[in-house]
Structure formats: C-alpha cells, structure tokens
C-alpha cells in the first residue's frame, strides 16, 4: 500500500471515529423537558441543553466527508480504469454496496435525530386541558446512527482496501504461460 493509500485510510478512519464519538455524545446529551408555569399561570415546556442537535449534525457532516473522500479515491467504483476480475474486485463490490446502505441509514438516523431533537413545543394547552405534551426525541435514535456509522466505517475501509488490492492486481501484467518461442508483448 502506497503513502497516498495510507493517508486516505487514516483520514477516513479519523473522520469516521469522530463521527461515531459525536453520535454517541448526541445520544448522551439528548434534550429533556419538564413542565413549568409562567406568570399568567399557563403551563409550558422547558427544555434542557440543545447540544445533541449540534453533535448530530457534526457527526452527519463528518460521515458525509468520509464517504466523499473514499468515493473520490475509488472513483465511486464505477468510473476510471477497469479492475481485474477476481475475488478482490468482488469483495470490493460487495463492501461498496453494503457501505452505501449503512451510510444512508446512518445519515437518516442522524438527520432525523437532529431535526426531532431541535423541535421544541412550548405552549400546547391552548386548545385542550391538562399539562402540555413536551416533544422529546426517543432514546436510541442517535445510538442507531452511531451503530450504523460504525458499520459504515468498517465497510468503507474494507471497500477501499479491497479496491486497492484489485487495482494493484490490474496493474501487474499477466504471466506468459506455455513453452515455445518467447515473443514480445504487444
């Protein structure tokens, strides 16, 4: 593996680890709410810190950047010079499909969690009786995003490594088989 490949693997791994840590942080810092009463005696919702929305968006952007780096480096697996047929190309193709599926699921979880966590209700009792229903994000949305971020990191790294092996195998000329008179390659 060349120096450029090591740099790409390191950058992608760094982005993915940071995205994973931020997604876990977003799960831990989800907004919570409690009902309070204003000066007019109306109940309303008071929310805690909104840090998890920022963590979720940052994890989403880092995961997107990681995916973009690998797709540019591998030419999205479909553009550029053809790879030699064999197991490395097949493994790379399988990991390519799986990494895209896990990437989309992770991005959707992180986006949905960030949007839902940022949604705050304040006064919801104007048209009904009783305490307000405070909208809060369910537990586990950011955790699912973190789990799929981890799977994306795993499969994107495997895709890149198998792609590099297949690209290296395509660069090596096939051996001359058979006896007889040696001819030059054309």
**Using only CA atoms, what is the Rg?**
25 Å
Report the strand count: 2
Contiguous low-pLDDT stretches (5 residues minimum) are none
Taking the alpha carbons of the first and last residues, their distance comes to: 29 Å
The average pLDDT score comes to 83
Summarize the structure.
The chain is mainly alpha-helical.
What does this molecule look like?
This protein is mainly α. The chain is built from 4 helices and 2 strands; from the N terminus they run αββααα. It has a two-stranded antiparallel ribbon. Strand 1 (about 35) and strand 2 form a beta hairpin. Helix 1 (about 5-30) packs antiparallel against helix 2, helix 2 packs antiparallel against helix 3 (about 85-120) and helix 3 runs antiparallel to helix 4 (about 140-170). The two termini are about 30 Å apart. The mean pLDDT is about 85.
SSE arrangement:
Elements: H1 3-28, E1 33-37, E2 43-47, H2 51-73, H3 87-118, H4 141-171
Helix pairs in contact: 1-2, 1-4, 2-3, 2-4, 3-4
Core attributes:
5% strand; mainly alpha; rod-shaped; two-stranded antiparallel sheet; 186 residues; 4 helices
